[in-house]
Write a structure and sequence with these properties.
Structural class: mainly alpha
Number of helices: 3
Strand content: under 5%
Distance between the termini: 29 Å
Helix content: 55-70%
Radius of gyration: 11 Å
Number of strands: 0
Length: 57
């Protein structure tokens, strides 16, 4: 079995790109995620996967 670790920079880069494709900045992505206002499916997926990590940072 192979274990792959992702860094904080990897996560921020990923969600920043997802947000950009949806017309959002990273800060808007975070604000909309915290307010449960994300409507783009990819943004919601990334938020659900990475929110605990992003909030803790």
């Amino acid at each position: 079995m192979r274990v792959t670790y992702i860094t904080k920079e990897d996560v921020v880069e990923r969600v920043t790109e997802t947000a950009r494709r949806a017309g959002l900045t990273f800060d808007e992505f975070m604000a909309d995620g915290l307010a449960d206002r994300l409507t783009d499916g990819d943004c919601r997926d990334d938020w659900l996967i990475y929110r605990d990590f992003l909030i803790d940072q």
